[in-house]
Amino acid sequence: MCFRRKHALLPYLPNGISEWTSVLKLATTWGFKDTRQAAIDALNDSQIGLVDRVVLAQTYDIKDWLLPALNQLAQRAEPISLEEAGRIGVDVALKMTWVRERLKSTSIHHCSRCGSSDGNAAFSVSDSRDYAAQGFDYSEAIRTTLAL
Which helix (DSSP H) or strand (DSSP E) does residue 45 occupy? Predict the structure, then answer.
C-alpha cells in the first residue's frame, strides 16, 4: 500500500481532509481498495466533523462509519439544522428527528399494569436536550428506521 498515515509528512502524499476526500473519491471510483482504505483511515484519524462523516459514509458507502455517526448525531444536544438536513438529505434528517423525538415521547411514565400515563408529567421548552438522551444508544432505532 502506498499511502500510510505515518508517512503523511512526505510532500507528495495528501494532507488534510479535502485532499484525503479527493483520494477517497478517486479510489472508490477506480476500485483501488488499498488506496480507498488508506484514505478512510486517514480521514478517520482526522478532525472530520460529524455531519461530514455522515455525508462521506453515505456518498462512498463507508459502512463502518454510518451507524456510529448517525447515533452521535441523535445523541448530541443540538437539533439537526436546516443546512445539515440539506447535506445529509431531508429524508434522513426527518427520520433522525423522529428517532430523537421518539425517546422523548416514550420517556413519560407509563404504567404497564393499568395502562395509565402519569398525568403529572411536566413539559417545558429548552435550548438543550435532556442529559439522559445524550448518553442513550439509538443504534437499534436508527437501524430499524433507516433500514440499515
Answer: helix 33-45
